[in-house]
Amino acid sequence: MLKQFAGVLRDDQGQGLVEYALILALIAVVAIAVLKLIGTNATNKLNQAATNLQ
Question: What are phi and psi of 51, to 5 degrees?
Answer without folding.
Answer: -65, -40
